[in-house]
Amino acid sequence: MTANQFAEKTYLKFSKIEGNQHIATEYALKCALRLICDFRLNNVLEVGIGIGCIADAVLTYSPQIHYTATEANDYCLNAVKKNVTQIESVKLYSDLNQIPENTFFDFIIIDGSDDALAQVKRMCGPKTIVFIEGGRALQVAFLKELFPKALHAEMVCDYKNPDCGPFSPQVWCGGGQLIFPYPDFKMKCYFFKEKLATYLKRKKRKWYS
Questions:
Q1: Which residues form the Methyltransferase small domain (predicted)?
Q2: Fewer CB within 10 Å, N or C, the chain?
């Protein structure tokens, strides 16, 4: 099964679960899995695991990944234990302040709010990649201020939400925001590729609107 097929299967699964109005979009799941594959990412932090949609997709597709997450909401904490097949592999903390010093991640997924978001800076190494699910303009602006040399590209979709999910099939499927805090040559090339892809997809969306 391909990464995209895993994303589609996970989205279908979580579309039938209580609380599905807060899950990641299908395309956001595809973006996260694509980044994991393209950069061979192994150590993941998810800020705001919610009911577990992204975590389940990632750990089902790559069960060898080391997964850490934060979540403070009691409802989500109870739900995620039922929804994520490999939940025993997840290190859960209530917020970023609780994650021990000298802990570094090569992939940070932001899928919720955290008053201690500035803590991600100490958790980033030279190869770290950040993916923000959805728009979250304030978080994007905050991270770009936190990492002045960062490169940021939108990851947008050129198809509308699937009929099976909680989001309107009349609306373009949402993606996310890709941030390279310390971009190297490969990251810069990837950035330009995503910028071009976004430009072309927006042209397509405008044409079909």
A1: 42-110
A2: C
Closest CA to 80 of 110, 54, 105: 54
Nearest to 11 by CA among 36, 30, 34: 30
Q: What is the pLDDT of residues 92-132, one digit of tens each?
A: 999 999 999 999 999 999 987 777 889 999 999 999 999 99
Q: What residue ranges define each of the domains in the chain, with the CATH number in brackets?
A: 3-208 (3.40.50.150)
| Ordered alpha helix ranges (H), the chain | 3-15, 26-39, 53-61, 74-83, 137-146, 185-208
Provide the terminal-to-terminal Cα distance of the chain, rounded to the nearest Å: 33
Mean pLDDT for the stretch of residues 27-56: 96
Other residues' Cβ atoms within 10 Å of the Cβ of residue 5: 12
H or E stretch including 154? Answer: strand 151-155
| Alpha carbon distance 161, 107 (integer Å) | 26
Inter-residue contact 121 to 99 (CB < 8 Å): no
Nearest to 59 by CA among 90, 35, 23: 90
Q: How confident is the model at residue 71 (pLDDT cuts 50, 70, 90)?
A: very high
One-letter amino acid for residue 2 of the chain: T
> Tokens 């695991």, residue?
49
